[in-house]
Amino acid sequence: MPLQDVDGWRNLAGLGRHELELAVHLVGPDGRVYAGAAAVRPLLGLLPGGRLAAAPLAAPGAGRVAQAVYRWVARHRRRDRGACLAVRRD
Predict the structure, then answer these.
(1) pLDDT digits over 4-51, tens only?
(2) What is the biggest distance separating any 2 CA atoms in the chain, rounded to whole angstroms?
(3) Comparing C-alpha atoms, which of 2, 67, 3 is closest to residue 38?
């Protein structure tokens, strides 16, 4: 659910808005909460064909690399519009 859904994020595992703004969060079918790069592998596992895509994330060291990439992307995303921006191609 989008962060703009106030009723939704207030009920998300007791997390505050500020904490939710720092990273994407996934609440798994078992109620476990994953944040940031740690959410990618379980999310892929829920999607059709996603287990195959998630397999490289099980490799030794992949979690540290994924976390570093996630932090870089999070630092460089645009926050001024509150949503993903469309890329214009002329």
Answers:
(1) 776 766 666 677 777 777 788 888 888 888 888 888 888 888 889 888
(2) 46
(3) 67
35: containing domain: 6-76
Please check whether residue 84 lies inside any domain of the structure. no
* pTM to 2 decimal places: 0.64
CA–CA separation, 79 and 86 (whole Å): 14
CA–CA dist 35, 31 (Å, integer): 13
Structural domain total, the chain: 1
- Quote the radius of gyration of the chain (alpha carbons, Å): 15
Chain centroid, CA 34 distance in Å: 8
Residue 56 located in a structural domain: yes
Q: What is the pLDDT of residues 59-79, one digit of tens each?
A: 898 888 988 988 888 887 765
